C-alpha cells in the first residue's frame, strides 16, 4: 500500500470548500457569534430598548436616542429664519450700520424742518474764510474743529452743506425706490397672472418707457419739477419701474402654473388674494434686489441731473449739485469735491450690499449663509 499522499489532492488553501459561503456562527465569516463587550449592556428585548440608560462615554457606553438628537433645538418661524440669515451676513450688517450712520448723521446734525440739530452752523449763511477754507478734521491726533469739512468760497460751513445735500439725495433715492417698486410689482403681477390682452397692453407701455433713454426722460421730468425735491422724486419714479415689472411678470408666469396656485383657485380664492398672498411672497428675493438697485441707481441719477442743472437747484443743494458747483476747485481745494463724492459712493455701495444680504435671507434657494 502506498501511503504517499495523492498528488491530485489540492492544498489546504485551494480546497473547493474554501470557496463556499462561510457557515454562520462558524467564526470564519468575519463576525463573531460572541457579543462584543460594549454590546452586553444593550437589552435584547425590543420593549425595553428605550429604557437604555446613559452609561457614560467609551466602549462600554450604551446607545441612547437622546445622545443622537439635540432635544434643546427648537423650530423657527419664517420670520425668525429670515432674521437669522440676515444677521449672519457680514457684508449686509456692515452696510446697514454704515447707511444708518450716514442717515442719522445727516438728519440730526443740521436738523430737518422744525426739528433743530446739534450742529451750531447752517448751510446758507456765509462767514469769514479761515485758513483758506481748509478742513479742521484730523485723524491723529483726533480733532473736529470749527469747520471739519472746510469752507466754500463764500465762507459757508461745508459740513452743513454736505449734510443738507445728503438729506436731499437720500429723500429722492428712497422715495423713488419705494414708489417705483410698488408700480413695477403691481404692473408685473397683473400682466403675468391675467395674461391675454391686458398683458399685451401693459408690456407695450413698459417697452415704450424702456426704449426712450432714461437720462432724457429724467432731464424732462427734472425740468418739470422746477427744482422741487418731492416733485422730482415722484417724477423720477415714473421711469424706474420698467425693469422690475418685466422681472416680476416672468416670475409670476412661472409661479401661476404651480400646484399651490391651482389648489387656491380650486377652492374659490379670489385673484387678488392669490397674487398678493400666494404668488408675490415667492418673488420677494427678486423684488428686494431690484428695489435696492433702484435706490442705488437713483442716487447716481439725481447726482447727474443736479450736476447738469436739471435736478435740485440753489438755494437748496444736493450731493450732485455740490460736485457740479465745485468741480473747478478739484486742483486747488479738492476737499470740496471729495466729501460729497465719497458720501455718494458710500451710500451706493451700502445699498447694494444690503440688498445682497436681504436677497440671501429671504430666498430659501440661497445657501451662502448658514441657517
From TrEMBL:
The chain crosses the membrane at residues 93-115, 170-194, 201-222, 228-248, 279-300, 336-355. Residues 1-64 are annotated as: Disordered. The keyword Glycosyltransferase does not apply. It is found in: Cell membrane. Belongs to the binding-protein-dependent transport system permease family. Residues 166-355 form the ABC transmembrane type-1 domain. It holds the Pfam family BPD_transp_1. This is ABC transporter permease.
